[in-house]
Write a structure and sequence with these properties.
Helix 3 packs antiparallel against helix 10 (294-303). Helix content is 39%, strand content 13%. By secondary structure, it is of the alpha/beta class. It binds ligand PGU. Ligand PGU binds next to helix 5.
Length: 408
Amino acid sequence: MISRNPCLARLKAGYLFPEIARRRREFAAAHPEDPARPETRIISLGVGNTTEPILPHINGGLIEGARRLGKAETYSGYTDEGLLELREGISRVFYGGAFSPAEIFISDGAKCDIGRLQLLFGGGTPVVVQDPSYPVYVDGSVLIGAAGPWGDSGYGGITYLPCTAENGYFPDLDRLPENALFYFCSPNNPTGAAATRRQLEELISAAVRKGCLIVFDAAYAEYIQDPQLPKTIFEIPGSRECAVEVNSFSKSAGFTGVRLGWTVAPKELKYAGGESVNADWGRIAGTVFNGASNIAQAGGIAALREEGLREIRELCGFYLGNAKLIREVLERGGISCVGGDNSPYVWARFPGRDSWDVFAGILEKCRVVTTPGSGFGPSGQSFIRFSAFGRRADVEEACARLEKFLLS
Ligand code: PGU
């Protein structure tokens, strides 16, 4: 019989979000909803999944994209690294035109590119994550065997850099190992912290000093409201030599189910041996990926027009409105929180408590699903992540239940 990839055995039992869904199902089976009692309905503030309809201009782009496929004159097939108009548009809108289309690779979402990126580095590459962090950085590394050599237990080649209240949710860069792959997410999932320009300058200078490559995850960039905060790592001098950036239309345009993202791999970025990371990324993308849907790309092109960008601001503003309601209710209840102002996540602290216990308590008493902070790494213990993605009426109802629970 064929042997199993040993990397699979090193993964933690289940991916965080399916595990939450399993616990929700289990709870729902034991406590069935009673349609006559709306307070028994379960509301999710768990997984960061968009709920609002795609706004008209962007949706029109998707419809037009589908229409074009139905006519011989406008039909298109594979688009390889993406439609030129979309790549040029992304460079113009998000990077002030600083990148050529050859440096922008269109993807089917940030998560998918995060999973593929490690093919660039292979086994043995030390991996560094912010702790807590989006679980795909660790699980993706483990799957691809990039974080070896392995000890008997645990993830030998993964360094967790704590991001806690004590250090303002920014890691101690003196602890950054050399020649490592460092996943850095800002605005951060799950803490909601958005790094300042000064902090990102320190990050780039540490990466250059230590020979690290940064994978900058900017999936929540459009949630940044404070004009002083950088929306991309490429606002920072020196970043082109040490960073790639992944981003996505999922959370800005409501494309979680449409699937469209991109990766920027600058021409200047080189491995230790002087080879081009950009050329290799093109090689890998061409080999294991056949491009994003043409329909999604037509939606992306619409999203980059003035009207589309206005819709992006409106949508992000709506979810930030939810975040404000959640944060206010928690703070009124005496819970200390961060996030929710430049990100769609509120990171709430329950000192001395186990995250999964708090998760279970909130599910039982409020019938609200959240995400336990410990699922994002050891430093997430005693925290709960509240996602602001939800219908307004559901968020208001969840807040009313939380308020009752916290004040009781
Ligand atoms: N990067 C970060 C930091 C994310 O939080 C997410 C989604 C993605 C990338 C995925 O972006 P796509 O472009 O849609 O692929 N995080 C959500 C959803 C859970 C998941 O497994 O992706 C969350 O709740 O954390």
